[in-house]
Amino acid sequence: MDILTAMKERHSVRRYKENPIEKEKLDVLFAEVEKCNSESGLNIQLVTDEPRAFTGALASYGHFSGVRNYIALVGKKSDMLGETAGYYGERLVLLAQMLGLNTCWVALTFSKRKANFKVGKDEKLVCVISLGYGEYQGKAHKNRPLAEICPCYGASPDWFKAGVDAAMLAPTAINQQKFTFSLSGDTVTATALKGPCSKIDLGIVKYHFEVGAGKDNFKWADK
Prior knowledge:
Layout: H1 3-9, H2 23-40, E1 45-47, H3 57-61, E2 69-76, H4 81-98, E3 102-106, E4 123-132, H5 146-149, H6 158-168, E5 179-184, E6 187-192, H7 198-213, E7 219-220
Parallel strand pairs: 6-7
Antiparallel strand pairs: 1-2, 2-4, 3-4, 5-6
Helix pairs in contact: 1-4, 2-4, 4-7, 6-7
């Protein structure tokens, strides 16, 4: 499975089988976590065979079951932390999909007290990502009208359209898709609108856009 196929086939999954994740797949994931941390300065942690974080009332409220593995997105406090965590978290999510695993972004419905990850004094937990073999494969989310997200889509070059198409496949909090794209020359602007976890979502959709458009075809607008 290539990464564009993974984008199309990956959907949120909350119920997992008891099947353990094979060592060879975990080795690939641990190696990618190390790469992501090295590139980003984040402190992403892959926690395996730990069922306690997704037990209790919060997990039940979120309709989670069977979660024994998860990725904790942790990093030093900054204005860019949410976006950075979203970008690198989605990189791991799509790798997991390519390995035949399922995932779900989780902001609230798990127990931080029971979870097995570390957060330093100058750090913050952004969210976690459940991981494992799903009991089902999830379903596609509905999209906002393309004209609301990218009014310039129709008159844009093919690489830009491919980037926006990939961004439309990105998971966002409560499927809100609170983001917009615009283009000036070869400079792309991605903007987060107001909404829960919208900065995390912006990082996720920017990673999707880069994969779809090709990083060599454009540059991001300065912050």
